[in-house]
Amino acid sequence: MNFLFIIVGLLFAALIAQLAYLQILHGTQLKAEVSRTDSTVETNNVQRGMIFDSTGRVLVGNKTHQAISYTKSVNVLAPQMYRTANKLGQYLKVPTGSLTRRNRADYYLASTSREKRVQANVPGIKNMAQSDAYDKELQYLYAHPAEFKLTRQQKNNAMIYARMSGAYSLSTTYIKETGVTSKELAEVGEHLGEMPGVKVGTSWTRNYPYGSSLKSILGTVSSEKTGLPDSKVNQYLAQGYSRNDSVGQSYLEEQYEPVLRGSKSQTDVEVSGTKIMKEVKRYGGQKGDNLQLTINAGFQKKLQSLVRQAESGAGGVSTGTYAVVMNPNNGAIIGMAGVDRNPSTQKITNNALGAINSSITMGSVVKGAMVSGALMDGVITPTNNTLTDMPITVGGTKKASWFNKNGGQNMAVNASTALEVSSNSYMMQLAMKEAGFKYSEGAALNMNSNIFNIMRGYFNQFGLGVKTGVDLPGETTGIQGSTSSKHLGNALDEAFGNYDAYTTMQVAQYMSTIANGGYRIQPHILSSIRGTNQNGGLGAVKATVTPTVLNHIDMTSAERKLVTEGLYDVVHGTNTWKTGGELDTIKPEISAKTGTAQTFYKGTETVTLSLASYAPSTHPQVVVALAMPNLDYNAEDNNMKLAKSIYQAYWQTVQSTSTLKSNTTSNTTTTTATAGN
C-alpha cells in the first residue's frame, strides 16, 4: 500500500513540474503562439468573358446558377472535413457517377474509428511514416472491398468529401455548381453555421444562344471538376491558376484564354490556428474581356443549314461539304461551315473546322493560279497566250479537256478562254512550257521533276498548299503528291488541279488574292477585344485586328486582267463550253472558277466538285469558296446550286446591295493602305 502512495505522489510531482514548465517558464511564449494570427489571401473566380458576333449578338454567354461552394480553411484536418461533408450531405444531393475507389477509401478512412479498425489489421503500422502507413491502409481496404461498402447516402457524402479535400488551403471549390434545388438552397442556408467553409453562392457555365453549329470553332471550357488539362498543368500553375480552375481547352476558348479568363477577386483573410477570424475584400475581381468575331451569327446559322442540306441530298459515298465566306479586302471570315458524312452509316455531323483541316483534291478551281504562274514565269504574255486545245498524249497515256476527249473539238484558246471553258489541255501545255519541255504527241515525258516546285511555288503565293495563317489552331497545309520520277506524269495533273490536295480555306484565300488585286491577306475570325458595359454587353474596344498582308503577287495589270476576264467569262462568257453559266442569275454578278476532280473513295470512282468565286465582279466585296468531295460520278452542278443559295443568303443577311457603292469605296481604300504597309 505504501508503495502505491509513493507512485501516486511521484506522478503528482511530475504533473506539477510540467504545469510549472508550461505556465511559469514558457507561459508567455505558448500564449503568444496560441494567439498568433496569420494573414493570407483567399481568391475566387470571376465570370469568363463572352464571345459576340460581328453585329453584337452573343455567341457564347455565361449562364448563372445558384451553387454550393466550400472554402478550405487553414490546416483543416480530414476528420473535420468528414464531419462537414456528412452534415452537408443531409441537405444536398450530388452526382456520384465519377466517385472512384480511392474517393470511397479516403472517405472511409476519414472516420477516426474506422481508421483505427483498419490499422489494427496492418502489422507494424505504428512504426511507419504517416504517408507509408496510409498507403498500407489503402492496400488493406482494396484487398478487402467488402469491409468498406458504402450506402447510397455515404456515397453522396463521399463525393462531397472528395471535392472538399481536393481544394487547396483558402481556395474555393464548387460542391454542386448546377441543378441546386430551392429546397437544397433553403436547408443548406439554414445550417451554414454548423458547416465551416460551406457557402451559398453563384457559378457560371457557358451557353450558346445561336446553337452549337459553331462550337467546334468557339471551343470548349474545362469544368471545375476536371480542372487544368494535364498537358499544360505546370504552365497554368506558373501563371497563378489553381488546379481546379476552368480554362479554355480548345480553339478560340483556348487561344484567347488570357483575354477571356479575367482576374480573380482577392480577400485578405486573418487566421488564428484553424479558425478564420477576419475577412476583408481587397479586390473585387474583373470579369474577362469579350471577343467580337468577324462572323455574322444569322448568316452563319443559315450557311451551316445550307451546307447540311447540300450534303443530305448528295447520297452515294459523299464524305462531306465545306464552305468559307470571307471579305477579300481585309481577310474577315463572315461564315465558315462544314459537315462530315459517314458513307457507311449515312450519319452527318457538323464540322466547321473541316474547312481548315480537311485536305481535298479540288480540281479545276486552281486554274486561275496556274495561268497566273505561267504569266509571271513568262512562258505566255498578255499579247501572246493562244494555244490549241487538243488531247495530250505522252508515254502512251492520253489526257484531255472535258469537252474534247477525242480531239473532235480542237480549237484555239487564249488564257481567258482557257479559264472560261476550263481547258485541261491548255494547263498541261503551260506546265510543259514552264519545264522547258517541247511536246511531241506520243513521245516520252522527259521533263525535269523540278516542275513540281515551279508550279507549287506559284500556287503557294496565292495560298494553295501553305497555311493561310487563320487565327484558329489545327490548320493543315494540305497534301502534296510524290515528285519521284515515276510520278512525273502527275505534273500534268497538278497543272489542272487533280493531284495535290488543299483546304477550303486555302481556296478562299487564293480567290481573295485575285479579287483584291494580288494581296494575300491572312484570314481572321477575331475582329476585336472589348470590355463590358454597365448592362453586361459589349464595352469599349481594347484591341482591333488589322489586316495582315502575307505577300503580294508580282503581276502587271495586263496580266491580272487576263485572269479576271477569264473568271468573269466562266459565268458570263459566250463560249458554248463555259462551265459556270448556271451562276449568271446571281445578282450582283459574280466571277468564278468551277472545279471538278476525278477521285476515288475506297475503290469507288467519285467526283469532287468545288467552286471559288467573288462578287461583285468589279470591286469585290465577298468571296465564296466551297468543296464537295466524293460525290456520285455523275454529279454535275451541286457546287453551283449551293453557291447560288449562299450568295442569296449573304445579300439578304449580311450586306444590302444598296450599300455596295459606299462600301466599295471604303474597301478599296483599306486594301491600298494595307498593301502600303
UniProtKB/TrEMBL annotation:
It is a single-pass membrane protein. InterPro entries: Beta-lactam/transpept, Beta-lactam/transpept-like, PBP_dimer, PBP_dimer_sf, PCN-bd_Tpept. Residues 322-646 form the Penicillin-binding protein transpeptidase domain. It holds the Pfam family PBP_dimer. It comes from the Bacteria. Residues 45-272 form the Penicillin-binding protein dimerisation domain. Keywords: Cell membrane, Cell shape, Cell wall biogenesis/degradation, Membrane, Peptidoglycan synthesis, Transmembrane, Transmembrane helix. It is found in: Cell membrane. SUPFAM superfamilies: beta-lactamase/transpeptidase-like, Penicillin binding protein dimerisation domain. Belongs to the transpeptidase family. This is Penicillin-binding protein 2. It comes from Secundilactobacillus angelensis. The lineage of its organism: Bacteria, Bacillati, Bacillota, Bacilli, Lactobacillales.
